[in-house]
Design goal:
Elements: E1 6-8, H1 12-17, E2 20-22, H2 29-44, H3 46-74, H4 76-82, H5 87-104, H6 110-121, H7 125-135, H8 139-166
Antiparallel strand pairs: 1-2
């Protein structure tokens, strides 16, 4: 029996079942052995990870760029159709609101404020593409994600340079 206090575990499984149980004792041999194994694994492959990281970073970035270009090329009619709508305006508004929220919640430090504003305005393109393609059958959803991503890059890259100069 564990000597820790009983608590409510807020995982989905336990919330659904409304279970109350004890937290696993952190001093257990099982937890210590797992921590030691992970530490040894990281130490053993740290050099290999450091060598492959720049290559994999570049492959990842090029793959995302290629994906955006291919989606744009495959759906060029849908991309061009966005220009007659208010889709780009909605994307600009979405980016501006994200930037504003990041700026307001960035705290008192100017550097933190700038980073949070830019990070909030530029959404995770890869995650948005996965959600858009898996959740909706209409290709216009993915096209709109790509258009907003491109508009975001066109707006935020010069804005980041401007913020860096003022830095």
């Amino acid at each position: 029996m564990s000597n820790s206090l009983p608590t409510v575990d807020f995982t989905l499984k336990s919330v659904a079942a409304c279970q109350v149980h004890s937290i696993v004792d952190v001093d257990s041999p099982h937890v210590r052995n797992n921590a030691l194994r992970r530490f040894a694994w990281k130490a053993r492959f740290a050099v290999a990870a450091a060598r492959t990281k720049p290559v994999l970073d570049r492959v990842s970035n090029l793959s995302l760029i290629l994906l955006v270009l291919l989606i744009t090329a495959a759906n060029i009619n849908n991309v061009l159709a966005v220009f007659g709508t208010r889709g780009i305006l909605a994307g600009l508004l979405f980016i501006a609101v994200g930037f504003g929220i990041g700026w307001l919640l960035g705290g008192p430090g100017m550097d933190t404020r700038r980073v949070l504003a830019l990070g909030t305005a530029q959404r995770n393109i890869a995650a948005a593409l996965v959600v858009g393609s898996q959740s909706f059958s209409d290709p216009k959803v993915v096209v709109m994600v790509v258009v907003v991503a491109i508009v975001g890059l066109l707006v935020l890259m010069p804005l980041s340079r401007l913020l860096a100069k003022r830095g």
